[in-house]
Amino acid sequence: MSKVAVKFNKQDQPEFYKVLQKRINQYFKDKNLAKTANWNMKFKTTFMLGIYFIPLILMLTGQITSFGGTLLAWAIMGFGMSGIGLAIMHDANHGSYSRNKMVNETLGLTMNFIGGYHVTWKIQHNVLHHSFTNVHEHDEDLDQKMFCMSPCQERKGFHKFQAFYATFLYALLTVFRYIFKDFQQVYRYNKMNLLEGQGLTYAAAITQVVLYKATYLVFLLILPLTLINLPVWQILLGFAIMHIICSLVSAFIFQLAHVLEETHFYETDDNGSVENNWAIHQLKTTANFSEGSSFFSWFIGGLNYQVEHHLFPNICHVHYSQLSPIVRATAAEFDVPYYSHKTFWSAMKSHFSLLHQLGKKKELIKAV
User: Fold this and answer.
1) Which band of pLDDT confidence, cut at 50, 70 and 90, is reported for residue 361?
2) What is the rounded end-to-end Cα distance, in angstroms, of the chain?
3) 145-185: per-residue pLDDT in tens?
4) Quick check: pTM over 0.85?
5) Which of 200, 227, 241, 293 stands 20 to 30 A from 17 (CA)?
6) Cα of 291 vs its chain's centroid, Å
7) b or e along 222-231 (b: 16 or more beta carbons within 10 Å of the residue's beta carbon)?
8) Tell me, what's the pLDDT at 280?
């Protein structure tokens, strides 16, 4: 990853974000609302934690004993696992769940309940992805060796098949993070002096990762293997199903926000500069999808409103659907693009079409 700081163009319509911020703040003032979690968010938190932990408890205590029942329990846990990541941990680690820092930090630790590590997630997502969305060698979400996700990246011969093998690799996302990625990121982020920004030394971070991973292994695999009276292969199959469900849900939600045919990709110049100001850059590199589905939006933590999330990551996602018309109208006034797919499936089509094009002919894709 490049160590040159990215410089956004502060002269590029700076009034756009000022006007937008004023209108968003006025919305909350007029409605007498806090920008943080409401009762809906608190219910969702209880629900997501419940569908993750209750099936596990029922299996460990012998309340669910059949092969079919345990597979169903693991599958439900897969949705609970993704729900914790998308709808609880995500807001908490952005500091948007509560005004209370301790509440955010505590709920942010739920990342460790699902096999990840909250510190490396915050660095990759908050520091690198949100700051430098779709910027080559800065946004680590694009830096996937088995994929060419930007026209700025080097294309390998096997990338011509990436649209076909993508779903299989997406299904391994959480297992890959658990086994390898968090350890590799701790080492690399220490070299980049990014752990220091989280108040951690390399030794402290490694110790935390090992302890969190070991605790997860005990409760999610060793105890089920010990206490559930079923063949080992059946338990391992259920564990795999849980991870596959969570991986696919998480991967598709985040990929459909930025790696699409219409979104832009950027490289910095020799001075580390890009052409737009930060807010306009977010609109050009981000897209919404399936805005009309209330339940879908509820379940995935409002992350189908990625435009609003990237512009206002400090606002809890339960408010995004109401902020979207304000952002859309303001963008139109300033002639700034506002990308949105009507359905999840149209966004999926755009994503896989882009993967196919990037794997074959990069010149067809716009890069700046």
Assistant:
1) low
2) 18
3) 899 999 999 999 999 999 999 999 999 999 999 999 999 99
4) yes
5) 293
6) 18
7) eebeeebebe
8) 97
**pLDDT by residue (tens digit) across 7-27?**
999 999 999 999 999 999 999
72-76's contacts with Cβ under 8 Å and 24+ in sequence apart are 73/238, 74/238, 74/239, 74/241, 74/242, 75/238, 75/241, 75/242, 75/245, 76/51
Contact present, 213 and 119 (Cβ < 8 Å): no
**Helix 14-31 vs helix 278-285: angle between axes, to the nearest 10 degrees?**
80
Q: Which two tokens stand for residue 278?
A: 């930060």
- E strand or H helix at 289: strand 287-289
Give the span between the Cα atoms of 354 and 365, in whole angstroms: 8
Neighbouring residues of 82: CB distance < 8 A, sequence distance ≥ 6: 245, 246, 249, 250, 300
Q: Six-digit token pair at 140?
A: 């680590």
| CA pair distance 318, 36, nearest whole angstrom | 8
pLDDT in tens, 76-123: 999 999 999 999 999 999 999 999 999 999 999 999 999 999 999 999
Domain range list for the chain: 14-364
Residues 6+ apart with CB under 8 A from 263: 134, 284, 285, 286, 287, 339
**CA geometry: angle 172, 77, 105, nearest 5 deg:** 85
Would you list the DSSP string of 3-21?
-SPPB--TTS-HHHHHHHH
Q: What is the DSSP string of 266-288?
A: B---TTSB-SS-HHHHHHHH-EE
